[in-house]
């Protein structure tokens, strides 16, 4: 793990592993007047990789994407897309990137087909319109006016417009908001196909399951800073295993043992008193085994039974909620 201080010192320095990255962000700060919305954010995305930027409302995700898109000049730090500064969308960046942003700029009076045709005529090397409409499942809506599409269908049209230009870098800002479960799963399938084709994808989403399904790496932002970053399994492992059971009637809570350095948290759920240990010490592959062995030995000595004993790893939701509480200050 890296502390916030280490990160501050290293954030602006180029790294050897930047070579080959499609997107590189180093020590990005972004201000709106005196308000600092982004405070020293760093990450990189390689071709074929999906990086999920998660975070609380107002954390600075959209501001970061808008900077990468070239709409905002950084207040400090550097942003590079294929080695180029994206500010002002120079041709070398514009032609190789595209985005599905919040609040699409669709023209309500055009039909789906007309919308796609306009974008097709403007693109340098577009995919065929029919192919893209088929991909996003809008073929049967091609003659329908944009105004008559549902919210989820409009998001699909946004995605179709982005895919038309064969982007090598794709920014997806909450792309499945408003979609039903089927549309969301279908969109995930499309995004997985893009990754396989080598597209570098930056995804922001409030659907944690979406990040769990798609992300090669993820970061959780809070108040302008990345608080947690890494491969999903590593991020979850950093939060430990949870061992819980119902406290036996004959045991007073003060007599519960510490396990692998973890003290129990005792809470009442319904009529029952539950003890929960969050075990973070020791080899991540073996610590649940050792925690259980210690508890079983303790229970055996007392000739008692640990009812409803369960072990589970932390979920992304656990981690996210801790970050939102301001409890997380380490980068995994
Ligand atoms: N044009 C602007 N002028 C002033 N403040 C702004 C502007 N745009 C965004 N902000 C502020 O900057 C902060 C970050 O906003 P941003 O939209 O980047 O967050 P976000 O992580 O995308 O949030 P959400 O998940 O709610 O979409 C917020 O406090 C927001 O109010």
TrEMBL record:
Gene Ontology CC annotation, any one? plasma membrane
**Residues annotated as domain ABC transporter:** 23-248
| GO annotation, biological process | response to antibiotic
**MF-aspect GO terms:** ATP binding; ATP hydrolysis activity
Gene3D superfamilies recorded for this chain?
Answer: P-loop containing nucleotide triphosphate hydrolases (3.40.50.300)
Q: Does the keyword Nucleotide-binding apply?
A: yes
> Sorted alphabetically, which Pfam families does this protein's record hold?
ABC_tran
Name the principal localization, coarsely classed. membrane
The record's listing under SUPFAM superfamilies reads:
P-loop containing nucleoside triphosphate hydrolases
Keywords, sorted A to Z: Antibiotic resistance, ATP-binding, Nucleotide-binding, Transport
Keyword Cell membrane annotated: no
Q: How does it sit in the membrane?
A: Peripheral membrane protein
The name this protein goes by in its record:
ABC-2 type transport system ATP-binding protein
Where in or outside the cell it occurs: the entry states: Cell membrane
Q: Which family does it belong to?
A: Belongs to the ABC transporter superfamily.
């Amino acid at each position: 793990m890296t502390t916030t201080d280490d990160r501050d010192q290293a954030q602006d320095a180029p790294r050897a592993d930047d070579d080959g990255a499609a997107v590189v962000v180093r020590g990005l700060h972004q201000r709106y007047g005196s308000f600092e919305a982004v405070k020293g954010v760093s990450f990189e995305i390689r071709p074929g990789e999906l990086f999920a930027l998660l975070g609380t409302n107002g954390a600075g995700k959209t501001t970061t994407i808008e900077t990468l898109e070239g709409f905002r000049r950084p207040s400090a730090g550097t942003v590079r897309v294929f080695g180029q500064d994206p500010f002002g969308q120079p041709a070398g960046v514009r032609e190789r990137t595209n985005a599905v942003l919040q609040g699409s700029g669709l023209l309500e009076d055009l039909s789906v087909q007309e919308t796609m045709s306009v974008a097709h005529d403007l693109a340098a090397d577009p995919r065929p319109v029919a192919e893209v409409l088929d991909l996003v499942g809008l073929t049967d809506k091609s003659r329908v006016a944009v105004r008559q599409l549902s919210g989820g269908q409009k998001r699909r049209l946004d995605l179709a417009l982005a895919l038309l230009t064969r982007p090598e870098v794709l920014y997806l800002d909450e792309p499945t908001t408003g979609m039903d479960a089927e549309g969301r799963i279908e969109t995930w399938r499309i995004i997985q196909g893009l990754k396989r084709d080598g597209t570098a994808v930056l995804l922001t989403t409030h659907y944690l399951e979406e990040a769990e399904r798609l992300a090669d790496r993820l970061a959780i932002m809070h108040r302008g800073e990345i608080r947690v970053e890494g491969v999903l399994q590593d991020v979850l492992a950093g939060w430990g295993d949870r061992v819980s059971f119902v406290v036996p009637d004959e045991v007073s809570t003060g007599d519960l043992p510490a396990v692998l350095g973890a003290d129990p948290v005792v809470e009442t759920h319904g009529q029952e008193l539950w003890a929960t240990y969050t075990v973070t010490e020791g080899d991540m592959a073996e610590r649940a085994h050792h925690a259980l062995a210690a508890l079983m030995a303790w229970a055996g000595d007392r000739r008692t039974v640990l009812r409803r004993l369960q072990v589970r790893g932390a979920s992304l939701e656990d981690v996210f909620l801790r970050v939102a509480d301001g409890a997380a200050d380490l980068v995994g």
